[in-house]
Amino acid sequence: MGGIFSSPDTPPPSSPPDPTKLDLRPEERKSLDLPDGRTLGYATYGSTNPSDPAIFLFHGMPGCRLVGRSWNKLCKDIGARLITIDRPGNGLSTLAARKLTQWSDDVLSLADHLKIEHFSIVGGSAGGPFALACARFIPEERLRGTTVVCGIAPIEALLDTTPYLSWRLGGFTSWAVKLAARYIILPRLLAPYRDLNPSRLKRAMEDQCQTPEEKEFLTPDPHRETDLDDAVAGLLETFKQGNGGFVLDGSITSSDWGFDLRDVDGGRVWLWHGDQDAVAPVATARWMNERLGGGRLRVLEGGTHSTIWKHHEKEIFERSAKARNDG
């Protein structure tokens, strides 16, 4: 396969990927046949006690159900069941033209299959819109609470919080931003993952680690549950069907969501965001908070798109596990 890894001079990674990390565990190979013939891939982590609270976790982009590896031990320790789901075209889930407003149907189908009556949701980054869609369309007697961490906001939020965009683009702002997202931003995000050779993929990810916090991830840490080899395994699984799922995710999140945040029961939603987030600017989180009725946003000083998880993961999952219908 060609692309950015085609040069024979590309150096190897600092160490070969660990084969045991690339192998999937039985609980990571699960799937559900949906009524319309599609397959929904999912994995289970954390507690195996059916009486413990259940949390559905929605991955970012690119991503898949293996994201749950990062919080397997944590959820065991706090007594929470963690269920991660592949969105269409990612991992084991069938690629199909689905809308954001239809995602809640798949989540409810899986909850029914697993005999989970009540559950909470956590959505990170590009998983945020899907979490908010569930907050809008899943009945409150099923959904105890929704937590969005560094969530991607609607295109309207970017336009409203960046006034000069409209002036520069001559009134074609929304149309132009959506085109840029699909044909410029998405291909750039996809570029490092064109070659799914594990060693070259790991090397590419090492080269992407530029900040001190990112480079810290390259150093072995006995207190950290996952490492770069788990990330390699996740990307291999994400793109096993090709890049269709990634493109679909990007198209869905950068298009009209199909619902108004003002119609979401904001009393059951919590937003976590870093004031130094360069991927999803905090101004867009404030925009969403306002439309949810206010008082739902926690801004973490110095937090970035990734460090929030590092410093606040236990609090995030504990709060989600304890969420109740009354907020």
From TrEMBL:
Residues 1-38 are annotated as: Disordered. It comes from Paraphaeosphaeria minitans. It comes from the Eukaryota. SUPFAM superfamilies: alpha/beta-Hydrolases. InterPro entries: AB_hydrolase (IPR050471), AB_hydrolase_1 (IPR000073), AB_hydrolase_fold (IPR029058). Keywords: Hydrolase. Residues 20-36 have a biased composition (Basic and acidic residues). Residues 53-311 form the AB hydrolase-1 domain. It holds the Pfam family Abhydrolase_1. This is Alpha beta hydrolase fold protein. Residues 9-19 have a biased composition (Pro residues). Gene3D superfamilies: alpha/beta hydrolase. Coiled coil: none annotated. GO terms for molecular function: hydrolase activity.
